[in-house]
Amino acid sequence: MTRKIAVIGAGLIGRAWALVFARAGCEVRLWDLDPNVRARALDELAEACRLSGEDASALAQVTICADMATAVDGVEWVQENGPEKLEIKRQIYADLDRMTAAHTILASSSSALLASHFAEGLPGRARIIVAHPVNPPHVIPVIELCPGPDTAPEVMERAEVLMRAVAQVPVRLSREIDGFVLNRLQAVLLAESLRLIEQGIVTPRGLDDTITHGLGRRWALLGPMATINLNAPGGVKDYLDRYGPTMARLSDSSARGEAFTERAAEIIAADLPGPAQVPELSRRRDARLAELGRFLRDNNE
Amino acid sequence: MTRKIAVIGAGLIGRAWALVFARAGCEVRLWDLDPNVRARALDELAEACRLSGEDASALAQVTICADMATAVDGVEWVQENGPEKLEIKRQIYADLDRMTAAHTILASSSSALLASHFAEGLPGRARIIVAHPVNPPHVIPVIELCPGPDTAPEVMERAEVLMRAVAQVPVRLSREIDGFVLNRLQAVLLAESLRLIEQGIVTPRGLDDTITHGLGRRWALLGPMATINLNAPGGVKDYLDRYGPTMARLSDSSARGEAFTERAAEIIAADLPGPAQVPELSRRRDARLAELGRFLRDNNE
């Protein structure tokens, strides 16, 4: 039986989700509050397919709906991509909870708000989760699945199964934490990077080269745990015995929030392509990420 | 004219350096204190070529030398890969300084010691630098070039030119800092990862998936600065205006050295392949890194 999915919000993230579900054979109902966004959505989806070198025939699976109630009627999963404003999210979830059947999972793409913020007190809070993607999810597969305090364990199980069925890579968090995992890791790396740049130790492009031609290349194949597991003859415990004290010393002197300065922003902006190039560079990024994704899939372990 | 290079130390890193220089057409003199290591070096180099899918004919450029003085005679660059022990390094650099001509650059692969630690007081300290590779440098191209306080600027210029000539990617640091850039970035990410794992928020494999299927995939193509430059319509300054406060908050609550606990090591070791699999997994890592390197070279901007 064809899976029925609703995607709420048809901006960049919502459209990428629609593509993820459609290319996996789901029937996708896409809705946005803004009629202009709805009107353009299918053309923009076709353009996203062209850029990422994907078969646009999957878009026949996508129906643009004129209202939210129609979009969510009878679906097994709602992927919500509304604004990151608590009052708006609360209203959306109150509506979704009322409009959908008890077996429907309500998943938010939120990166800043936690389910406990917007699901609190709702009758259906056991079926509300965060399914946090990376921009854009049709070319970057990881999805952080984060329960709220009242989310039912079987909802998390079903969420994991669905994400795998649509060829994404779910990562389950056991409980809520500010920033989830991915943005916490990104934040510490950015803080240290900004300070090294502001101190003039390295240029912004030099810092980027350190990652793209160094750590990032390794991390595209092996995560940081698998990496250190291979960097000492006796595996990860041997690594942490040998290098843990050094790594601890380096992290003790690492930068924190104070590194996010205006001056660091100025230095970085002066070394990188300007805002006028952002749209074209973003399209190239997505095309290259899609290529890399195919390479990694074909060269998987 | 063929460039003449000496590589001192024929362990994993020294051999990888020998391969980097040889495949770029340099004449390489390889020496190790241990005669058994010297005797095996060419066979091990041939095996490294086989694993990384490279043409082993470059190995004809490599000569194994029976003593250090012969290896370094008349070379333009010495790449030293001795043990990370200060007294040993001091002795090696005193010897190298005496044995080599004034135009020869003396470069250390050291990750833990700085040039100021082992070049201090030597007549040739202006030509001594750190050229820090990532394990293993024949499949990961970044090289951190770090001057000591007395290193001449033209030595850094020549070092950068040579690294580009042998197809590595040099990153220049303006001055010494503990851990250089790469290991400082790795350390902050490891600290936060270990704490998230120890707290049970995410499993070690889940954490690795977050990177390999998320941030690492992006970072193999775009560094963290280029990434944030494309994650807001107005570029990096717009990004830092919008998300800087969130990233600052997350890094303010990030883990530091206290995260490197025995318990975290136990949890990680229990979730990953054991030490017996390290050699085979390392070989597969190198083969896959070589493949990925070719893919990235062919799909470069």
From TrEMBL, chains A, B:
Cited InterPro entries: 3-OHacyl-CoA_DH_NAD-bd, 3HC_DH_C, 6-PGluconate_DH-like_C_sf, 6PGD_dom2, NAD(P)-bd_dom_sf
User: Could you tell me which SUPFAM superfamilies the record lists for this protein?
Assistant: 6-phosphogluconate dehydrogenase C-terminal domain-like, NAD(P)-binding Rossmann-fold domains
Keywords noted in UniProt: Oxidoreductase
Q: Does the keyword Nucleus apply?
A: no
What Pfam families does the database record attribute to this sequence?
Answer: 3HCDH (PF00725), 3HCDH_N (PF02737)
UniProt entry tagged with the keyword Oxidoreductase: yes
Q: Which residues form the 3-hydroxyacyl-CoA dehydrogenase C-terminal domain?
A: 179-244
For this chain, the family text in UniProt reads:
Belongs to the 3-hydroxyacyl-CoA dehydrogenase family.
Question: Under what name is this protein listed?
Answer: NAD-binding protein
